[in-house]
């Protein structure tokens, strides 16, 4: 039985199948949504936010290092919620991935779609409530800051007017955050078993005046696409747990600043000097290491 909670949306599709090429070598070890973020898989950050908004069932697509997802969710559940996996032996892109999970989604209620590699604190519930109130085909969560402001938006009507300058209507003042709500009818617009982007579907709905946007300028938002942004996220976001985990082993002769994050079972040896560093769970920092804004991760 499915539990409907929150603003009329109980399922979320988390995009987890990307290769994470810009985040290498971290993604040689784990898929990007499973890299540690404050001691635990990054995807749990999004799942908690979704849960707080009433989501009670999760769908995650996989591709790169898919076996790592089995280890992260061996019971196929989290916090009492079912977790379904949609494996893509060949990457299907943003549209094909959505189409493939149609059997796992509801034919009656909207679906929340969210990137598995983002960290954010903006009010996701407000985006969901706006979608349920207006019931367009799609509602995008947008921000007016960012380096990819290519979404045209009518601030008075809430309508998205262009994306990526494809329609020539609006140069764009907003950035798409990677979170959106969609009606079940969207599945019917995507051809089955094809590698296809969701953007052409979005553009069709823009032409019809059926694609809304909600400004999500409150709080923080970051797409952790590079090692630099990954470190910066650990500096910008509040930590839900002690930055130096109680199960970490830091030598009395080591110096670790207050901004660094040291995971459980990590070892920082004698004479180390760490500033704004991230040490993964179980990783070891050799004696005498002096480092600033560096990631110490596990090897294959």
How would you describe this structure to a colleague?
It is globular and about 65 Å long. With about 300 residues, it is an alpha/beta fold. The strands form 7 sheets. The chain has an 8-stranded mixed sheet with strand order 5-6-4-1-7-12-9-13, sandwiched between helices. Strands 15-18-21 form a 3-stranded parallel sheet, with no helix packed on it. The protein is built from 6 helices and 23 strands. It has helices at about 40-50, 65-70, 95-100, 125-135, 200-210, 225-235; strands at about 10-15, 35, 40, 55-60, 75-80, 80-85, 110-115, 120, 140-145, 150-155, 160-165, 175-180, 210-215, 220-225, 250, 255, 260, 265-270, 275, 280, 285, 290, 295.
Q: Which keywords apply here?
A:
alpha/beta; globular; 27% strand; eight-stranded mixed beta sheet; 300 residues
Summarize the structure.
The chain is α/β, with parallel strands linked by helices. It is 19% helix and 27% strand.
Strand order of the largest sheet: 5-6-4-1-7-12-9-13
Give the N-terminus to C-terminus distance in angstroms.
Answer: 40 Å
Output the number of helix runs: 6
Radius of gyration: 20 Å
What profile does the largest beta sheet have?
Answer: 8 strands, mixed
Globally, the shape reads globular
Low-confidence stretches: 1-6
Blueprint (SSEs and pairs):
Layout: E1 11-15, E2 36-37, E3 40-41, H1 42-52, E4 57-62, H2 67-72, E5 77-78, E6 81-87, H3 93-100, E7 111-115, E8 118-120, H4 124-134, E9 138-143, E10 151-153, E11 160-163, E12 175-182, H5 199-208, E13 211-215, E14 221-223, H6 227-236, E15 249-250, E16 255-256, E17 261-262, E18 267-268, E19 273-275, E20 278-279, E21 284-285, E22 290-292, E23 295-296
Parallel strand pairs: 1-4, 1-7, 4-6, 9-13, 15-18, 16-19, 17-20, 18-21, 19-22, 20-23
Antiparallel strand pairs: 2-3, 5-6, 7-12, 8-14, 9-12, 10-11
């Amino acid at each position: 039985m499915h539990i409907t909670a929150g603003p009329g949306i109980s399922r979320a599709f988390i995009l987890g199948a990307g290769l994470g090429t810009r985040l290498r070598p971290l993604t040689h070890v784990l898929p990007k949504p499973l890299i540690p973020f404050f001691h635990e898989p990054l995807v749990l950050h999004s799942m908690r936010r979704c849960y707080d908004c009433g989501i009670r069932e999760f769908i995650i697509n996989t591709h790169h290092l898919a076996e790592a997802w089995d280890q992260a969710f061996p019971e196929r559940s989290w916090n009492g919620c079912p977790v379904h996996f949609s494996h893509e032996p060949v990457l299907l892109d943003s549209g094909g991935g959505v189409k493939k999970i149609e059997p796992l989604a509801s034919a009656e209620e909207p679906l929340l779609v969210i990137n598995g590699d983002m960290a954010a604190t903006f009010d996701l519930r407000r985006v969901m409530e706006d979608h349920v109130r207006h019931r367009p085909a799609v509602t995008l969560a947008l921000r007016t800051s960012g380096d990819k402001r290519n979404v045209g938006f009518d601030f008075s009507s809430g309508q998205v007017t262009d994306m990526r300058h494809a329609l020539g209507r609006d140069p764009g003042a907003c950035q798409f955050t990677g979170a959106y709500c969609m009606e079940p009818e969207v599945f019917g617009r995507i051809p089955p078993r094809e590698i296809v982007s969701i953007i052409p579907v979005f553009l069709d709905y823009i032409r019809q005046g059926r694609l809304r946007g909600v400004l999500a300028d409150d709080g923080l938002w970051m797409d952790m696409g590079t090692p630099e942004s990954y470190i910066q996220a650990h500096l910008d976001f509040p930590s839900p747990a002690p930055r130096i985990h109680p199960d970490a082993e830091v030598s009395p002769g080591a110096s670790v600043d207050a901004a660094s994050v040291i995971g459980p079972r990590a070892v920082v040896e004698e004479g180390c000097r760490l500033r704004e560093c991230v040490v993964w769970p179980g990783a070891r920092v050799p004696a005498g290491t002096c480092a600033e804004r560096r990631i110490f991760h596990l090897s294959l």
